[in-house]
């Protein structure tokens, strides 16, 4: 049977819809848009500018960004002894209340508890104790997140503890490498942070940690939107102000720069998502 032009058009359009949706989903920005920094939905993010921003570019505030840059560069394998000791301790904690046991939180807490002692013994030359501990904890968070992200909350204690210990023991095995990488990274990243402070939109910080936005700022903001993270603008000598209120407001530090519209868009997207849920 001969099909009409209208029927062909409808068929082609119907076929194109799922392809467009799939393409859109594939293009959705991920953590790489914000330099692979590990962020939770409770994160507090803000833009800073000028002198106050430059002073904020201290090494201890660069550790999370450097952890993202150092991710994948250190590939030492976890030791058998670490896995055995970790598994026994983890199982004892998990079996108390398996349903409420959080793989990532347990992994990060156990891993980070050793950072102070490790840094006292072997911080990199020129690196302070606080900088070393910050790098160590950031490495723990990264390894634990990577190991636990595929383990559902409904998994049993064995699965949760296997994932938790994999992250903790890998972070331990790569401690020296990660600390050295972080020390080298902060030297390079400090200059980049200060340069961002001089730009109209300023530098982005989340939970006091610098976010190294290498590519599109909009992509990073879109990613933060998927986590429903609010982004604020910080006016020097003033309290933090929501960028969503910036357009047309004389008190908004970034009015007229275009940043306000970007951040306002993030807030609208998050609000729409909450309304649909």
Structure description:
- With 277 residues, the chain is of the alpha+beta class.
- It has helices spanning 5-26, 50-56, 63-70, 80-94, 103-112, 115-122, 129-148, 157-173, 175-197, 217-226, 259-276; strands at 45-48, 203-206, 209-211, 231-234, 240-242.
- The protein has a five-stranded mixed sheet with strand order 3-2-1-4-5.
- Helix 4 packs across helix 8.
Task: Provide the fold topology.
Elements: H1 5-26, E1 45-48, H2 50-56, H3 63-70, H4 80-94, H5 103-112, H6 115-122, H7 129-148, H8 157-173, H9 175-197, E2 203-206, E3 209-211, H10 217-226, E4 231-234, E5 240-242, H11 259-276
Parallel strand pairs: 1-4
Antiparallel strand pairs: 1-2, 2-3, 4-5
